[in-house]
Write a structure and sequence with these properties.
With 345 residues, this protein is an alpha/beta fold. The protein has one domain: Rossmann fold (3-Layer(aba) Sandwich). 23% of the residues lie in helices and 21% in strands. The chain contains seven helices and 15 strands. The strands form four sheets. A nine-stranded mixed β-sheet has the order 6-4-7-8-15-14-13-10-11, sandwiched between helices. A two-stranded antiparallel ribbon has the order 1-2. Strand 1 and strand 2 form a beta hairpin. Helix 1 runs antiparallel to helix 2 and helix 2 crosses helix 6. The longest helix has 19 residues. The chain is globular. The chain starts with 5 loop residues before the first helix and ends in a 7-residue tail after the last helix.
Length: 345
Protein backbone atom coordinates (compact mmCIF):
# COMPACT_ATOMS: atom_id res chain seq x y z
CA UNK A 1 0.00 0.00 0.00
CA UNK A 2 1.15 3.52 -0.71
CA UNK A 3 2.15 5.58 2.32
CA UNK A 4 -0.26 8.42 3.01
CA UNK A 5 -0.25 11.50 5.16
CA UNK A 6 -2.77 11.06 7.99
CA UNK A 7 -3.86 14.72 8.00
CA UNK A 8 -4.57 14.53 4.27
CA UNK A 9 -6.60 11.39 4.89
CA UNK A 10 -8.71 13.05 7.56
CA UNK A 11 -9.33 16.15 5.46
CA UNK A 12 -10.25 14.15 2.36
CA UNK A 13 -12.62 11.92 4.31
CA UNK A 14 -14.24 14.88 6.05
CA UNK A 15 -14.87 16.66 2.74
CA UNK A 16 -16.55 13.61 1.25
CA UNK A 17 -18.52 12.92 4.41
CA UNK A 18 -19.79 16.48 4.60
CA UNK A 19 -20.89 16.56 0.97
CA UNK A 20 -22.72 13.24 1.27
CA UNK A 21 -24.33 14.17 4.59
CA UNK A 22 -25.60 17.43 3.11
CA UNK A 23 -26.97 15.57 0.11
CA UNK A 24 -28.71 13.17 2.49
CA UNK A 25 -30.40 16.11 4.17
CA UNK A 26 -31.54 17.58 0.84
CA UNK A 27 -29.76 20.87 1.37
CA UNK A 28 -27.30 20.85 -1.51
CA UNK A 29 -29.72 21.21 -4.40
CA UNK A 30 -30.39 24.59 -6.06
CA UNK A 31 -33.52 26.33 -4.88
CA UNK A 32 -36.63 24.78 -6.34
CA UNK A 33 -34.77 21.74 -7.66
CA UNK A 34 -34.79 18.27 -6.18
CA UNK A 35 -31.33 16.90 -5.32
CA UNK A 36 -29.93 14.45 -7.84
CA UNK A 37 -29.09 10.97 -6.63
CA UNK A 38 -25.58 9.69 -7.28
CA UNK A 39 -25.19 7.59 -10.40
CA UNK A 40 -25.53 3.98 -9.25
CA UNK A 41 -28.15 1.31 -8.76
CA UNK A 42 -31.57 2.04 -10.15
CA UNK A 43 -34.34 0.41 -8.13
CA UNK A 44 -37.03 -1.59 -9.82
CA UNK A 45 -40.46 -2.29 -8.48
CA UNK A 46 -39.20 -5.00 -6.12
CA UNK A 47 -36.39 -2.94 -4.62
CA UNK A 48 -33.69 -4.91 -6.43
CA UNK A 49 -30.94 -3.17 -8.35
CA UNK A 50 -31.69 -3.09 -12.04
CA UNK A 51 -28.70 -3.94 -14.25
CA UNK A 52 -27.19 -1.31 -16.49
CA UNK A 53 -23.90 0.32 -17.42
CA UNK A 54 -23.54 1.75 -13.94
CA UNK A 55 -25.36 -0.99 -12.00
CA UNK A 56 -24.17 -1.41 -8.43
CA UNK A 57 -21.60 1.36 -8.60
CA UNK A 58 -21.25 5.08 -9.02
CA UNK A 59 -19.60 7.36 -11.51
CA UNK A 60 -16.37 5.80 -12.73
CA UNK A 61 -17.11 2.71 -10.66
CA UNK A 62 -16.14 4.47 -7.45
CA UNK A 63 -19.29 6.29 -6.34
CA UNK A 64 -22.22 5.61 -4.07
CA UNK A 65 -25.52 3.92 -4.86
CA UNK A 66 -28.57 6.05 -4.16
CA UNK A 67 -31.28 4.97 -1.70
CA UNK A 68 -33.23 2.05 -3.11
CA UNK A 69 -35.80 1.35 -0.45
CA UNK A 70 -38.23 4.24 -0.64
CA UNK A 71 -37.17 5.98 2.55
CA UNK A 72 -35.84 9.15 0.96
CA UNK A 73 -32.38 10.59 1.46
CA UNK A 74 -33.01 12.24 4.83
CA UNK A 75 -34.99 9.39 6.36
CA UNK A 76 -34.41 7.10 9.30
CA UNK A 77 -36.75 4.19 9.78
CA UNK A 78 -37.91 0.82 8.58
CA UNK A 79 -37.16 -0.23 5.00
CA UNK A 80 -40.48 -0.12 3.18
CA UNK A 81 -39.89 -2.81 0.56
CA UNK A 82 -37.28 -5.34 1.74
CA UNK A 83 -36.11 -7.73 -0.97
CA UNK A 84 -33.24 -9.98 -1.97
CA UNK A 85 -31.13 -8.94 -4.94
CA UNK A 86 -30.76 -11.48 -7.73
CA UNK A 87 -28.80 -9.67 -10.45
CA UNK A 88 -25.13 -9.09 -9.51
CA UNK A 89 -23.69 -5.62 -10.05
CA UNK A 90 -21.24 -4.91 -12.85
CA UNK A 91 -17.74 -4.52 -11.42
CA UNK A 92 -15.41 -1.96 -13.00
CA UNK A 93 -13.13 -3.49 -15.62
CA UNK A 94 -10.10 -1.93 -13.96
CA UNK A 95 -10.89 -3.25 -10.46
CA UNK A 96 -7.67 -4.76 -9.13
CA UNK A 97 -7.87 -7.94 -6.99
CA UNK A 98 -7.26 -7.88 -3.26
CA UNK A 99 -9.22 -4.73 -2.54
CA UNK A 100 -12.17 -3.67 -0.40
CA UNK A 101 -15.88 -4.30 -0.82
CA UNK A 102 -18.08 -1.83 1.08
CA UNK A 103 -21.50 -3.46 1.46
CA UNK A 104 -24.34 -1.52 3.09
CA UNK A 105 -27.63 -3.16 2.10
CA UNK A 106 -30.49 -2.85 4.57
CA UNK A 107 -33.66 -4.91 4.76
CA UNK A 108 -34.60 -3.80 8.27
CA UNK A 109 -33.95 -0.42 9.86
CA UNK A 110 -32.07 2.21 7.87
CA UNK A 111 -30.39 5.50 8.73
CA UNK A 112 -29.83 7.03 5.31
CA UNK A 113 -27.50 9.90 6.31
CA UNK A 114 -25.33 7.56 8.41
CA UNK A 115 -24.94 5.06 5.59
CA UNK A 116 -24.13 7.73 3.03
CA UNK A 117 -21.59 9.31 5.40
CA UNK A 118 -19.91 6.05 6.38
CA UNK A 119 -19.77 4.83 2.77
CA UNK A 120 -18.08 8.11 1.86
CA UNK A 121 -15.55 7.93 4.69
CA UNK A 122 -14.62 4.33 3.93
CA UNK A 123 -14.27 5.04 0.22
CA UNK A 124 -12.08 8.06 0.97
CA UNK A 125 -9.81 5.97 3.18
CA UNK A 126 -9.48 3.27 0.53
CA UNK A 127 -8.68 5.90 -2.09
CA UNK A 128 -6.04 7.57 0.08
CA UNK A 129 -4.50 4.16 0.76
CA UNK A 130 -4.31 3.40 -2.94
CA UNK A 131 -6.64 0.41 -2.57
CA UNK A 132 -9.15 -0.77 -5.13
CA UNK A 133 -12.66 -0.57 -3.71
CA UNK A 134 -16.30 -0.98 -4.64
CA UNK A 135 -19.39 0.38 -2.88
CA UNK A 136 -22.70 -1.41 -3.28
CA UNK A 137 -26.02 -2.28 -1.65
CA UNK A 138 -26.58 -5.18 -4.02
CA UNK A 139 -26.54 -8.46 -2.07
CA UNK A 140 -26.12 -10.45 -5.28
CA UNK A 141 -22.45 -9.46 -5.23
CA UNK A 142 -22.05 -12.24 -2.67
CA UNK A 143 -21.17 -14.85 -5.29
CA UNK A 144 -17.91 -16.84 -5.57
CA UNK A 145 -16.60 -15.08 -8.68
CA UNK A 146 -17.10 -11.51 -7.50
CA UNK A 147 -16.10 -12.14 -3.88
CA UNK A 148 -12.80 -13.56 -5.13
CA UNK A 149 -11.90 -10.01 -6.26
CA UNK A 150 -11.77 -8.76 -2.65
CA UNK A 151 -9.60 -9.34 0.40
CA UNK A 152 -11.75 -7.32 2.81
CA UNK A 153 -15.55 -7.11 2.92
CA UNK A 154 -16.95 -4.35 5.12
CA UNK A 155 -20.53 -4.87 6.26
CA UNK A 156 -21.46 -1.25 6.87
CA UNK A 157 -24.50 -0.62 9.07
CA UNK A 158 -26.51 -3.44 7.49
CA UNK A 159 -29.80 -4.59 8.96
CA UNK A 160 -32.38 -7.25 8.30
CA UNK A 161 -31.84 -10.46 6.36
CA UNK A 162 -30.05 -9.20 3.23
CA UNK A 163 -28.84 -12.39 1.53
CA UNK A 164 -30.59 -15.45 0.11
CA UNK A 165 -29.30 -18.95 0.88
CA UNK A 166 -26.92 -19.15 -2.07
CA UNK A 167 -25.42 -15.75 -1.26
CA UNK A 168 -24.97 -16.74 2.38
CA UNK A 169 -23.20 -19.94 1.37
CA UNK A 170 -20.88 -18.01 -0.97
CA UNK A 171 -19.93 -15.48 1.70
CA UNK A 172 -19.38 -18.21 4.32
CA UNK A 173 -17.07 -20.15 2.00
CA UNK A 174 -15.14 -17.00 1.04
CA UNK A 175 -14.70 -16.08 4.68
CA UNK A 176 -13.55 -19.48 5.90
CA UNK A 177 -11.02 -19.76 3.07
CA UNK A 178 -9.17 -16.65 4.20
CA UNK A 179 -11.38 -13.61 3.68
CA UNK A 180 -11.51 -10.71 6.12
CA UNK A 181 -14.77 -9.29 7.50
CA UNK A 182 -15.21 -5.92 9.20
CA UNK A 183 -18.67 -5.32 10.65
CA UNK A 184 -19.65 -1.77 11.60
CA UNK A 185 -22.36 -0.89 14.14
CA UNK A 186 -25.70 -1.92 12.63
CA UNK A 187 -24.10 -4.98 11.01
CA UNK A 188 -24.17 -6.58 14.46
CA UNK A 189 -27.27 -4.87 15.79
CA UNK A 190 -30.22 -6.99 14.71
CA UNK A 191 -32.46 -8.32 17.51
CA UNK A 192 -33.09 -12.04 17.68
CA UNK A 193 -36.23 -13.39 15.98
CA UNK A 194 -39.27 -13.94 18.19
CA UNK A 195 -40.84 -17.38 18.41
CA UNK A 196 -41.53 -19.18 15.15
CA UNK A 197 -42.27 -16.07 13.10
CA UNK A 198 -38.71 -15.67 11.89
CA UNK A 199 -39.04 -11.95 12.64
CA UNK A 200 -37.94 -9.74 15.51
CA UNK A 201 -40.17 -7.67 17.77
CA UNK A 202 -40.72 -5.14 14.98
CA UNK A 203 -41.91 -7.79 12.55
CA UNK A 204 -38.75 -7.62 10.41
CA UNK A 205 -36.90 -10.76 9.37
CA UNK A 206 -33.66 -10.38 11.30
CA UNK A 207 -30.05 -10.95 10.26
CA UNK A 208 -30.03 -12.98 13.48
CA UNK A 209 -32.02 -15.64 11.62
CA UNK A 210 -28.66 -16.54 10.08
CA UNK A 211 -27.27 -18.43 13.05
CA UNK A 212 -23.80 -18.89 11.50
CA UNK A 213 -23.41 -15.13 11.09
CA UNK A 214 -24.24 -14.37 14.72
CA UNK A 215 -22.27 -17.26 16.20
CA UNK A 216 -19.22 -17.08 13.94
CA UNK A 217 -18.93 -13.51 12.65
CA UNK A 218 -20.19 -11.27 15.46
CA UNK A 219 -19.87 -13.99 18.10
CA UNK A 220 -22.61 -12.65 20.38
CA UNK A 221 -26.26 -11.64 20.03
CA UNK A 222 -27.28 -7.97 20.13
CA UNK A 223 -29.98 -7.29 22.75
CA UNK A 224 -30.44 -3.51 22.66
CA UNK A 225 -28.73 -0.19 23.25
CA UNK A 226 -28.59 2.77 25.58
CA UNK A 227 -29.46 6.16 24.12
CA UNK A 228 -26.81 8.29 22.44
CA UNK A 229 -24.61 9.93 25.08
CA UNK A 230 -20.93 10.63 25.77
CA UNK A 231 -18.86 7.87 27.37
CA UNK A 232 -15.27 6.73 27.83
CA UNK A 233 -13.90 3.93 25.67
CA UNK A 234 -10.88 2.22 27.18
CA UNK A 235 -8.47 1.11 24.47
CA UNK A 236 -7.04 -2.04 26.01
CA UNK A 237 -4.76 -3.60 23.42
CA UNK A 238 -2.60 -0.56 22.74
CA UNK A 239 -0.04 -2.65 20.81
CA UNK A 240 -2.60 -3.81 18.25
CA UNK A 241 -2.44 -2.14 14.81
CA UNK A 242 -6.15 -1.53 15.31
CA UNK A 243 -5.33 0.87 18.15
CA UNK A 244 -2.72 2.92 16.30
CA UNK A 245 -3.16 6.64 17.00
CA UNK A 246 -6.01 6.13 19.49
CA UNK A 247 -5.83 7.48 23.05
CA UNK A 248 -5.89 5.12 26.01
CA UNK A 249 -9.24 6.69 26.97
CA UNK A 250 -11.31 7.68 23.96
CA UNK A 251 -14.12 10.01 25.01
CA UNK A 252 -16.95 10.31 22.51
CA UNK A 253 -20.74 9.99 22.12
CA UNK A 254 -22.45 7.03 20.47
CA UNK A 255 -25.36 4.62 20.70
CA UNK A 256 -23.94 2.00 23.06
CA UNK A 257 -24.81 -1.54 21.97
CA UNK A 258 -25.22 -4.36 24.49
CA UNK A 259 -24.98 -8.09 23.84
CA UNK A 260 -26.30 -11.31 25.33
CA UNK A 261 -22.86 -12.46 26.44
CA UNK A 262 -19.35 -11.10 26.76
CA UNK A 263 -17.12 -11.79 23.74
CA UNK A 264 -14.12 -11.64 26.08
CA UNK A 265 -15.23 -14.98 27.50
CA UNK A 266 -15.23 -16.74 24.12
CA UNK A 267 -12.12 -18.71 23.10
CA UNK A 268 -9.98 -16.95 20.50
CA UNK A 269 -11.71 -13.56 20.80
CA UNK A 270 -9.42 -10.55 21.21
CA UNK A 271 -10.94 -7.43 22.77
CA UNK A 272 -9.41 -4.18 21.50
CA UNK A 273 -11.59 -1.68 23.37
CA UNK A 274 -14.44 -1.58 25.88
CA UNK A 275 -16.81 1.20 26.92
CA UNK A 276 -16.76 2.15 30.60
CA UNK A 277 -20.28 1.76 31.98
CA UNK A 278 -19.38 4.10 34.87
CA UNK A 279 -18.99 6.93 32.36
CA UNK A 280 -22.56 6.82 31.01
CA UNK A 281 -26.04 5.51 31.85
CA UNK A 282 -26.50 2.04 30.33
CA UNK A 283 -30.08 1.91 31.68
CA UNK A 284 -31.40 -1.61 31.01
CA UNK A 285 -28.43 -2.49 28.81
CA UNK A 286 -25.59 -3.03 31.24
CA UNK A 287 -23.23 -5.93 30.58
CA UNK A 288 -22.16 -6.13 34.20
CA UNK A 289 -19.44 -3.51 33.99
CA UNK A 290 -17.24 -5.23 31.39
CA UNK A 291 -18.63 -3.97 28.09
CA UNK A 292 -16.47 -4.70 24.99
CA UNK A 293 -17.09 -2.53 21.91
CA UNK A 294 -14.38 -3.66 19.46
CA UNK A 295 -13.07 -7.21 19.05
CA UNK A 296 -11.73 -9.68 16.49
CA UNK A 297 -11.26 -13.43 16.10
CA UNK A 298 -10.50 -16.11 13.52
CA UNK A 299 -13.19 -17.77 11.41
CA UNK A 300 -11.58 -20.76 9.73
CA UNK A 301 -8.66 -19.25 7.81
CA UNK A 302 -10.35 -15.85 7.80
CA UNK A 303 -10.44 -12.98 10.26
CA UNK A 304 -13.53 -11.20 11.60
CA UNK A 305 -13.48 -7.75 13.21
CA UNK A 306 -16.54 -6.10 14.73
CA UNK A 307 -16.95 -2.55 16.03
CA UNK A 308 -20.17 -1.44 17.73
CA UNK A 309 -19.25 2.21 17.15
CA UNK A 310 -20.66 4.54 14.51
CA UNK A 311 -24.38 5.25 14.78
CA UNK A 312 -24.70 8.77 13.38
CA UNK A 313 -23.58 10.47 10.16
CA UNK A 314 -21.66 13.15 12.05
CA UNK A 315 -19.54 10.49 13.74
CA UNK A 316 -17.79 9.75 10.45
CA UNK A 317 -16.25 13.23 10.54
CA UNK A 318 -14.46 12.57 13.85
CA UNK A 319 -10.68 12.43 13.33
CA UNK A 320 -10.28 9.53 15.77
CA UNK A 321 -13.09 7.59 14.11
CA UNK A 322 -11.39 8.13 10.74
CA UNK A 323 -8.14 6.94 12.35
CA UNK A 324 -9.79 3.77 13.62
CA UNK A 325 -11.45 3.03 10.27
CA UNK A 326 -8.09 3.54 8.58
CA UNK A 327 -6.48 1.15 11.07
CA UNK A 328 -9.19 -1.42 10.41
CA UNK A 329 -8.78 -1.20 6.64
CA UNK A 330 -4.99 -1.66 6.86
CA UNK A 331 -5.51 -4.55 9.29
CA UNK A 332 -7.96 -6.11 6.87
CA UNK A 333 -5.95 -6.00 3.67
CA UNK A 334 -2.40 -6.46 4.99
CA UNK A 335 -1.62 -9.81 6.70
CA UNK A 336 1.50 -8.23 8.19
CA UNK A 337 -0.75 -5.88 10.16
CA UNK A 338 -3.48 -8.30 11.11
CA UNK A 339 -1.77 -11.66 11.26
CA UNK A 340 -2.72 -14.86 9.47
CA UNK A 341 -5.36 -17.06 11.02
CA UNK A 342 -4.19 -19.98 8.86
CA UNK A 343 -0.98 -19.97 10.90
CA UNK A 344 -2.96 -20.25 14.12
CA UNK A 345 -4.60 -23.59 13.31
Amino acid sequence: MKPRNCNWLIVAAAILVTSLALKAQNVDAPAGQAPQAAVGQTPNATGNAAPGPEAGRGRGGRGFPPPTHGLGMNAVGRVLDPAYDTTPPELPADLKPGGVLIYSKTNGFRDEPAIQASDAALAAIAKMRGLSYFVTENGAIMNPEQLSKFKLVIWNNNSGDTLNDDQKAAFKAWMEKGGVYFGIHGAGGDPAPVGDRGANFAGIRSEANWKWYIANMIGVQFIGHAHIQPADIHVEDVKSPLAKGLPAIWHRADEWYAFSENPRNKPGFHVIAAVDEKSYDPANYSMGGDHPSIWWHCVGNGRALFSALGHGAEMYQEPLMIQFLDNAMVWGVDPRAGGSCSAMH
